[in-house]
Model the fold of this input.
Amino acid sequence: MSRAMRQMPGQPGRVGVAQGEAVRDLISDEAWGPPSEHPDTGLAKPKAGTGGLLEAALTRQNLLLAWKRVKANKGAAGVDELDIEQTARMLRTRWPEIRQALVQGHYRPSPVRKVMIPKPDGSQRELGIPTVTDRLIQQALLQVLQPLIDPTFSDHSHGFRPGRRAHDAVKAARTYVQSGKRVVVDVDLAKFFDRVNHDILIDRLGRRIDDAGVIRLIRAYLNAGIMDGGVAVERHLGTPQGGPLSPLLANVLLDEVDQALEARGHSFARYADDCNVYVGSIKAGERVMAYLRKLYTGLKLQINEAKSAVGSAFGRKFLGYALWLAQGREVKCAVATKALDSLKARIRQLTRRSGGRSMEQVVEKLRPYLLGWKAYFGVAQTPRVWRELDEWLRHRLRAIQLKQWRRPKTIYRELKALGATEDAARQVAGNCHRWWRNSRGVINTVLTIAYFDRLGVPRLS
Done:
């Protein structure tokens, strides 16, 4: 790939760098990194007709940075079935041709590959996986566009932005409720990414950037269609999740609602298509809900009435979190019940006692999930819940360990080797086939917290 880049002239221009390629998983749907500029980044808007943004995106320096990000994010092949390494080999010979098509406005992106991702509620989310080449081009565009556009967004928007994350939205919500705004207007958009109107999006984008080449290329990506069952289906609505540009384009469209709410002085937090507005009464909340319906209708978007409501801020969840009133009337954060249920279901799956896996293999699968979950829900202020989860998890792991040792002699020998007393080793070995009941009580003095720490099991508490 670097050889292909060396074939390109080092064009003058200012190149913006943002960290983040594509929409990420349940815990990291964001462009990570602080909102700082690369030394070669300028926020000045290029003059109309110069083609400055596209040229900046296609400089060797910007493309190398984009390739580094695409490669780091790995990801599956698109409809061309070329993975990262295969694409790198292809670009060594074909990049000059692709670049020329981009500059002349003739480039036609490939359709995205349709992938259905199961959601915790049993439904599925549709993702569109672009080819690696298209991910590279989109990432290069993102690195130039984000430093220009992101500073114009509302401070109430927290999703898919450098230096911002879900924690910021949750903390803002907690602050509003603490101030006395105990009623929330909880809005969720129905299939937002599938219903984005291309004409409206391009119009809003054109108000922010003045580069016909970039606008034309982004329109081509929106119109590229999706490959479903071997058939390319044209799409005139939607911006499929999975491409590096989709989060930025979503914010471009939804910022119009943010600015309208801000102009009226409302207290709100938005993360992607989840928006919570905090008010002082149910009547005020109903007025805000009616206003939001009008705003979203103007963008040809639809509110999911089943998931949206006006109600007590303590009875709704936001980004997997719930709010509760602690002693002294302090508002605190907790993990929502649904998120806790999903955690337990996943842990049960990862720690099932069948499958013939060693304890080390179980921990290897469990560790990244727990670390990611802990990082996302680290704002929760419920130490007792964390302790109970840790105890429950270690109970399950002790049951696995006993079943793996299986025979009374083996259990006795292994417990003695770990420093168990004679009575403790005999008692546990004597109940060898009662895995769950036997994995609590006296065995806790041998398979201790320190034992699981040494195995690398993360603590939630």
Notes: Residues 6-50 have pLDDT under 50 and may be disordered.
